[in-house]
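Entry 14. Structure prediction run on the chain below.
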Amino acid sequence: MTPFLRFEDGKITLGDKDILAQSADLSFAPTLETERVYGDINESTLGSKIETQSRTFSPKAGLKGTLGVSFIVDAEFFAKDSTVNNIDSLFHINSGMSDKPINRNRVGRYLFDNMYLKSFGFSMQPFGVIFARAEYDIYGSLRKGPAFRTQKTSIDPAHALKSFGEVKASNIDMGVYSDGQFELNSLEYNILVERKIHNHIRDSEHSSINTTANSVVPVRVSVESIEAQMTIKGSEIIKNLNPLGDAQSSGIADGLADSSIAAYIYSLSGNRIASFSCTGKIMSQSLSLGEGSYSEGTITIKEIIK
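Output returned:
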């Protein structure tokens, strides 16, 4: 019997819910800094009599880990209770999201609590299943338990064959704005939340620091800012892009609407699952043209949500 765990036996559970993951990367590290204490002063040299009296490492924060998970998008987590866009809090980043941690998590044989969603994103490619990736911050230590297999009787995955995207340059449909037909080749969506850690002084002095590996965990991990970004590749880029990140067709820059990209996600059987959008400023665009291939434009839009 091999001590190494096969992927099929490595159940991945977030918030006590099994997910159909394609990969997972889990890591932990203490926050240690070098501490040096020098000996008595040497009056003749005005330096230390010995190089260092003691050398050690000391923690500057509690134990912190990260988890990155790649998984298949389906209705179970993105259209809960058969309601379109009813996204599970495991993957939902929005301005009113909770500060509560996600507990009862498992990766293979290892279990942990105090996990917080950091980022979520997905990509759409022609004729491909839609995969998403979520990243989390974890506070505290690990426990170990037996391995289990994920049991899924059926799945209706989100698929790019039925899904589609929509692009508007300063609220004008890209097909109209580009004076012709606009073809979308691929779409990528990412949303990131920045958090602030809150600790209590007396909690940091508790005897549990020396008696348990889990040590001190934050009393609160609050949401500070949220930003979303969408990048598309297609047949055109935006003409008349001005320094404000808007598409300026007329002579007046004031009052122009923001540009937007939207993705409408459907399952392989044709059921609508969710929609994601990004409305903001055009942060960058580029055009590539090479021998043996068609020209391809890349446009990136960013939105400040909080």
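The radius of gyration is 25 Å.
Filed with the rest of this week's runs.
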